[in-house]
Amino acid sequence: MPFKAKRLARRASWATACVSLALIGASCAKSQAPHGQLATSQATLKAAEELRAGEVPKASLHLQMAKENTERAQRCMQKGKHDEALYALMRAQSDAELALILAKEAQAQKDAQAALDKVRSLRSQNGE
Amino acid sequence: MQRHLQLSTALLGGFAALTQACATTHPMPVELAEARRDYEYSASGEATQAAPAELHTAKVTLEKANEAFARDPEDPHVRDLAYVAQRQAAVARAQARIHLTTAQADKAVNEVQGAQASALASTQDELRRTKEQLTQAEMESKAAMEALHQIKGSQVKKDSRGTIITLSGNVLFETGKATLLPAARATLGDLAKALLRMKAKSIVIEGYTDNTGSDKRNAQVSQARAEAVLGYFASQGINAEMMKAVGKGNTNPIAKNTTAEGRATNRRVEIVVQGEASADETESSQAEGQNAGASAVKAPAGAAVK
Question: Which domains, and CATH codes, for chain B?
Fold first, then answer.
C-alpha cells in the first residue's frame, strides 16, 4: 500500500476510534471530564491555525465554530456536565478537521497554480 | 395458545403503530437529513476513489446517528452525531479535490519535463553530430593544407584575404606567353586536388608581371595567364562559377624590379582561397622543390623578363 494511502487509512482509523471512544465515554463517564478529547481538539485547532485556515473563507468559518464548541465544552466541564462537554468536543474536532483540510486544499491549489504557471512559461520558451 | 398468539400480534402491531406515531410526532432532525444528503453526495463523487478512508469515517458516524435516532428520536445527541457526520463527509470531498488538483499539476509538470528531456537529448545528439562533422572538416582542411605545402614550387601563407598560394610565372608559362608549360600541369593538377579537398567557397586567381613593358601589355598578359590557370583548374573539376581570374599587371610587386631575380619573383600567379573549413591557423611556409630545375623563385641569369 503506498505511503499516502497508509497515512490516510491511519487517519481514518484514528478518527473512527475518536468517535467510538467518545461515544463509549459518553455512556459510562458521567463523572470523568474529557480532558483527552479536549487536548485533541485543541491540537487540531492549532494545526489549522498554523496552516492559516483563518485566511481561507470557508476554513475560517469552521475554525470559528471549532473554537466556540471548544469553549462551550470547557464551560460544561467546569460545571461538571461531562457528557455534554464530550459531544461539544466531538463537534469541535469535526469542525477543526474540516478547517484544517480546507486550509490544505487552498495551499494545494496555490502550489498547483504555481506549477502550472511554470509549465506555461517553459512551454512558451520551447516555442509551443 | 390462541390467546398467546393474539397477544403477540397485538404487541407487534402496537409497536409498529407506536413507531409510526413517533415518526409523525418526532420528525427527523434537519441535521440528520442534511448529513444523509451530504454523505450521499460525497459517496457519488470522486471521494469514493480519492478519499475512501475519510468517506468511510463519515459513513460510520452517520450510521451511529441513524441508530441513535431509531432508538430514541428525541435523543439530543442525534443532532451531534449528524453534525459530525456532515463535517466528515465534507472532509472526504475536500481530500478528493486535493488529490485531483495535485494529480493534474503533476501530470502537466511531468509532460513538460518529458518534452524538455526529449528536446535536450535531441539537441545533444545534434551537437555531437555537428562536432563530428566539424572535426572531420577540420581534419580534411588540415590534410589539404599539408598537401598544399607538399606542392613543388609553391609558397603558402594565410592573411586577411584567406589562404594565398603563390606560384612562379616562370614555372607555369613560356616566356612572354600565357600558354601553360607541360610541367606546370602536374603542379597545377596537384594544386587542384588540394583545392578540392579544402572545399573552398571562392578562388581568385591573380596574374602579376614585372614592370618591363607597357602597363597595358602587362595587364593583358597577366589577365591571360590568370585565365589559363582558371581554365586548367576547371578542367580538373573545380567549379568555374566559384573562380575568378584577375590580371593585376605590374602592380603589387613583392620584390625589387631593379634586379633580374626581383623581376622573376614579381612574375607570378597568386591563388587566393577563401571560405575553407579551418581559418584560425596562421602560417607561412615554403615548399622545397625536389627538382632543382623547377625552382620557383630564382630566375636564370639573363633570362627574358616576360
Answer: 2-103 (no CATH), 151-294 (3.30.1330.60)
